[in-house]
Amino acid sequence: xxxxxxxxxxxxxxxxxxxAGKGTICKKLLEETDKLELSxxxxxxxxxxxxxxxxxxxxxxxxAFEENIRRGNLLExxxxxxxxxxxxKAPVIEKLESGIDVILEIDMQGALKVKENYxxxxxxxxxxxxxxxxxxxxxxxxxxxxxxxxxxxxxxLKELSYIDKYDYCVVNGVLEEAxxxxxxxxxxxxSKVAFTAEELIDSYREEI
Length: 208
Ligand code: 5GP
Hints:
Bound molecules: guanosine-5'-monophosphate
Helix content: 40-55%
Strand content: 15-25%
CATH topology of one domain: Rossmann fold
Strand order of the largest sheet: 2-7-1-8-9
Largest sheet: 5 strands, parallel
Distance between the termini: 18 Å
CATH class of one domain: Alpha Beta
């Protein structure tokens, strides 16, 4: 392949406080682009209505999950609200090595672990447009008590302090705009200089 077009697969990590809408952005992004593949996580939580094994998650029990941790099969894992969630390592590495971009939609603890193990990843922080809007979204889900929501909001403020570990931040006010920005990040990342001057000159020289 032409050196100017060549690129290894890139790992995009979409993360941010819960309720910021990273799941929604990710879903829409995958619908609108065929150039990215989602990493399917493993979890010990129960499947929700409509979720499919191997598509939404690989659903497993605690023992099997812990065995995967011991065997080093996970790129990262975290405990989120009492359940384990983790990224199976082998499929991610295989895709990246064959030039395919991979996207992870994971919580912030996990994202920070990926950063330690895979600093070449592109880390995107999804921000809620305001605390008032975040409160509205969390309340709208109807799954948590008022007290739990206050706790979450306090947690969000702490999570904001990790922003300097990220490469990009996208405010999720209008969904379409946020998705467009993430797409632009993917394009920008692939426009980075990924070859040496010598390789570039050689590739042009061949055309003379
Ligand atoms: P849910 O149970 O709503 O699908 O996900 C709960 C949280 O777990 C979300 O913040 C989601 O981003 C996060 N999550 C999903 N998969 C993974 C994963 O593989 N690793 C980590 N660290 N977090 C994950």
